[in-house]
Sequence to fold (154 residues):
Amino acid sequence: MFRILSLVLFLTGAAVAAHAADVYRYVDAQGGVHYTDTWVPGSTLIKVDHQPKASEAAAPARTAQNKPLSAGDRASTDVAKAADERAVKADVAQAQEEQCKQAKDSYTKAVASRRIIKSGSADGQREYLSEADANAYRLQLHDAMQAACGTDTK
Fold:
């Protein structure tokens, strides 16, 4: 009984470890790029890295680690890794640019607004921030803009 339980746990762990190595990329409704190890509708597989099966791990003479890669295999692996790294960097840059743009827009609107409406009024009536609270809110938006865009924002 213990052996069967151990075998089931081992096989389950091996299956989870092999599946967790896949990386999927998707864009949410707001345009944000996300990476995950589980498939999401609309996502694309960008990295596959399966672990060897238990039978292959038991026979080290047959594993790929003992076989040297050919120059062509190494080159295509390097090219694929470089392309993945470029795609990730481009996605991060695009996400940072979008966050910066949203932060600038929020700050610009707050500065241009004479009065700022409080969010979440209980009775549905418009309530406005006091002048001191509005200035504190604008300062908070300015700090958020600097964090998203850097200190030299224009």
Q: What stands out?
A: The helical segments are 2-20, 54-58, 71-112, 131-149. Residues 20 and 88 are 18 Å apart (CA to CA).
